[in-house]
Amino acid sequence: MKLIAHRGASHDAPENTLAALRLGYAQGADAGEVDVHLSRDARIVVHHDADTGRTAGLRHAVAAQSLAELRSLNVGQWGKWHASAFSENIPPLADVLPLVPAGRRLFVELKVGAEILPELERVLRASGLAPAQLALITFDLATARAVKLRLPAHEVCWVAEPPAPLDGLIRQAKTAGLDGLDLGYKFPIDAAFVQKVHGAGLKLYTWTVDDPAVARAQRAAGIDGLTTNRPGWMREQLSAA
């Protein structure tokens, strides 16, 4: 079971920043995970929310700001980080991709629709990373299908959370030509369900798991990867089990 650093090592550094991604890989994560939007000038930027209020203290719609304007915001000193030494900006995806070590991966969650695809294709190709190192995920099935059609060499997974019917998720993902499912950890995931997913030729990842007991149970069920805010600590807990 692979460990995926959710928005980087976001328990130990501000989420979706270069610091969090570096730390996630330094802690031994098999992959990082980031969220992306399009800026006003059609650049792909790494940020979870559609606006910057939570992370920067200034509520600007990401889509209404240029890359330069977004990069001017400090997203390193919010919440529990308010008194920290972090000074982090909203990075473009192009600045994140060089952080991916050889032999490891990055999961890129698309927070917008298929309009991102021309720029996404350009940025991914310019990165020099192998397609096998870059997985693309989204909650929107139509977007996932469009991504797979345009970028067939990349793993594309559909993200879902309860109460969606599990058998229906498998069927729809397979029909859409996708490579896997990325499911909220509260789904009733057991070995029988994992076998169904794998039997359909799909991979199965879960998110976001910071409870070692849940991680152990899902590992025993046979999932392919688990997304956590604490990759280093989680690996220690699983190794001690």
Describe the protein's architecture and organization.
This protein has one domain (2-240): TIM Barrel (Alpha-Beta Barrel), CATH 3.20.20.190. Strands 1-2-4-5-6-7-8-9 form an eight-stranded parallel β-barrel, surrounded by six helices. The two termini are 14 Å apart. It is an alpha/beta fold and 241 residues long. The protein is built from ten helices and nine strands. It has helices spanning 18-26, 53-56, 67-71, 93-96, 117-127, 141-150, 166-175, 191-199, 212-221, 231-240; strands spanning 2-6, 31-38, 44-46, 105-110, 134-138, 156-160, 180-184, 203-207, 225-228. The mean pLDDT is 97.
Count of DSSP helices?
10
Counting DSSP E segments of at least 2 residues, the number of strands comes to 9
Strand content: 15-25%
Q: What CATH first level would be assigned? A: Alpha Beta
Q: Tell me the domain tally.
A: 1
Helical residues, percent: 25-40%
What CATH calls the topology is: TIM Barrel
Distance between the termini: 14 Å
Overall pLDDT level: 97
What is the correct CATH architecture? Alpha-Beta Barrel
Radius of gyration: 17 Å
CATH superfamily annotation: Phosphatidylinositol (PI) phosphodiesterase
Query: Biggest β-sheet: count, sense, barrel?
Result: 8 strands, parallel, barrel
Unreliably modeled segments: none
Helix/strand-derived category reads: alpha/beta
H/E element sequence? EHEEHHHEHEHEHEHEHEH
Principal-axes geometry comes out as: globular
Strand order of the largest sheet: 1-2-4-5-6-7-8-9
